[in-house]
Amino acid sequence: MTKKIQDASVIVDGGYQPATVVLKKGVPAHLSFKRISEKGCLDTVVLPDFGIKEKLPLNQEKVFTIDTRIPGEHQFSCGMNMFHGKVVIK
Predict the structure, then answer these.
(1) Which of 68, 73, 81, 87 shows the greatest Cβ crowding within 10 Å of its Cβ?
(2) Taking a C-beta distance cutoff of 8 angstroms, is the pair 42, 77 a contact?
(3) How far apart are CA 48 and CA 42, in angstroms?
(4) Cα dist. 49→12, 33, 76, 87 in Å?
């Protein structure tokens, strides 16, 4: 029997919607970011706790696999650390 995979999506448009994503501990997760605006520094997303720093293509989903074994709050931001969000694992 395979484990289910959690899917969470964030729209990037002058910030992050939603800014908080909640995931269940121990269940594999895919977190996708879709940038729909060319404005600002939101063309890069940084998730330091997961070792991720990636460019976000315009109008395309970029999917990351998130390790949910460690509970807590994990911050993410744009490349210039001006816009913020978080992944909460519980």
Answers:
(1) 87
(2) no
(3) 16
(4) 20, 17, 9, 10
Domain that holds residue 37: 6-89
Structure tokens belonging to residue 79: 């490349």
The string of pLDDT tens digits covering residues 58-84 is 999 999 999 999 899 999 999 999 999
- 66 within some domain: yes
C-alpha span between 80 and 43 (Å, rounded)? 10
Residue 1 lies in a domain: no
At 19-62, the pLDDT tens digits run 999 999 999 999 999 999 987 789 999 999 999 999 999 999 99
Q: How many domains does the chain have?
A: 1
pTM attached to this predicted model: 0.92
The enclosing domain of 24 has a CATH number of 2.60.40.420
